[in-house]
Amino acid sequence: MDDYVHLVYQITKDFPKEELFGVTSQVRRAALSTILNYIEGYAGKKSENCKVYRNFLETSYASLKKSKYLLHFSLIEEYLSKDNYNNAWKLPEEIGAMLWATIQGMSKK
Question: Any idea which fold 2-107 has?
Fold first, then answer.
């Protein structure tokens, strides 16, 4: 997750200046929210079945999905090169799979 946040910050440095408070800010906050919610949930968990922990994981997953959409939007709007998009797309796929498996595993308990 840390690598993903840093990658998002790096590739958004070249976004149009008029998007600084728009897409640039949104995608950065969504990527950062992914890891921050994961950390906060993990730090406060008492057990694997903790509802609060699961809520943080679900919020982390939702933020990840939001950031992925914003990267796609940025590609279509040509704020982002195809190469940067392809590089940025791999990490959230892996992160999403990990988060989803953890959330689903909690449902079975």
Answer: de novo design (two linked rop proteins) (1.20.1440)
Q: Where are the alpha helices (DSSP H) in 1-109?
A: 2-12, 23-44, 51-76, 82-107
CA separation for the pair 19, 83 (Å, rounded): 20
Q: Which among 57, 68, 73, 78 is positioned nearest to 7, based on CA atoms? A: 68
Instruction: Give the model's pLDDT for residue 49.
Output: 55
pLDDT band at 106 (very low <50, low <70, confident <90, very high): confident
On the CB side of 22, CA atoms within 13 Å amount to: 10
CA 33, chain centre distance (Å): 7
